[in-house]
Amino acid sequence: MLEVHGLSVRYGAVEALNDVSLNVAAGETVALLGANGAGKTTLLRALSGLVTPVSGTMSLNNESLSSISAEARVRRGLVHVPERRRIFGGLTVEENLKVAASAWAGATADLSADLDKVYAFMPRLKERQTQRGWSLSGGEQQMLAIGRALMARPKMLLLDEPSLGLAPKIAQDVFARIGDIAAQGVTVLVVEQNTALALKVAARGYVLESGRLVTSGESAALLSDPKVREAYLGAA
Questions:
Q1: 220/37 Cα distance (integer angstroms)
Q2: Can you give the three-state secondary structure of the chain, one letter per residue?
Q3: To pair with 143 at 20 to 30 A between CA atoms, which of 89, 110, 134, 236?
Q4: Has residue 98 been placed in a domain?
């Protein structure tokens, strides 16, 4: 579904990504792992059209992404949930969700059906539908950010650090919902520093260091890799 070949990104003289290649099959959940500054967020921003690579190719369903806008990528089904949620604090939960429907501009009946699907995945949002975004807990805000992305009818979700700032139990709940979404056939590429949590829901993973891809493999193999465990799980 997603194919990335030889992708490089620079911020001035700083090389954020260097010759990165990866792929994600339709219906697959893949984790992108690495420490702060490894280039994970930059890769998602390049995929969603928020930064421009200096070289390399990106395609979704065999169609190049390189020459189309960020908005057009959303309409093709590539939807990005950024780090730190970025919800609209002054809008209600339901208003936040409806904003994303502009990606497909569906009829009212379709909008209601899509809202019902999101609320079925995340019942807490249904309970909070009239509350302002700023009044939600961190976990609820993350659920809202993911729910808003679902309203754009994604074929593929790009999730950036969904557990950031959350208590362990809440982070587990968020990832359980991500697993539910993936089980419905949505393809997921998730950036996450919590390696163990990410690899529980992902079939495979890639590890970035200093903008370079250093290893990849099945989740079980990465979890048992001594170098990965030492670097990201705190085990020798």
A1: 25
A2: CEEEEEEEEEECCEEEEEEEEEEECCCCEEEEECCCCCCHHHHHHHHHCCCCCCEEEEEECCEECCCCCHHHHHHCCEEEECCCCCCCCCCEHHHHHHHHHHHCCCCHHHHHHHHHHHHHHCHHHHHCCCCEHHHCCHHHHHHHHHHHHHCCCCCEEEEECCCCCCCHHHHHHHHHHHHHHHHCCCEEEEECCCHHHHHHHCCEEEEEECCEEEEEEEHHHHHHCHHHHHHHHCCC
A3: 110
A4: no
Question: Residue 234: pLDDT band by 50, 70, 90 thresholds?
Answer: low
Q: Cα separation of 29 and 188, whole Å? A: 5
Residue matched to tokens 């997921």: 188
Mean pLDDT of the chain: 88
HSE value, Cβ hemisphere, 13 Å, CA-based, for 94: 11
List Cα–Cα distances, 215 to 44, 225, 228, in angstroms. 18, 10, 9
The answer to whether position 96 is within a domain reads no
**Residue 100 confidence class, pLDDT cut points 50, 70, 90:** confident
CA distances from 226 to 49, 140, 204, 221 (A): 35, 35, 17, 10
CA–CA distance, 30 with 54 (Å, rounded to integer): 25
Report the alpha-carbon distance of residue 204 to residue 20 in Å, rounded: 16
Reply yes or no on whether the pLDDT at 101 is more than 80: no
Q: How many domains does the chain have?
A: 1
Task: Answer yes or no: is 11 within a domain.
Answer: yes
Is the pLDDT confidence value at 230 over 90? Answer: no
Stretch 67-89: mean pLDDT, rounded? 88
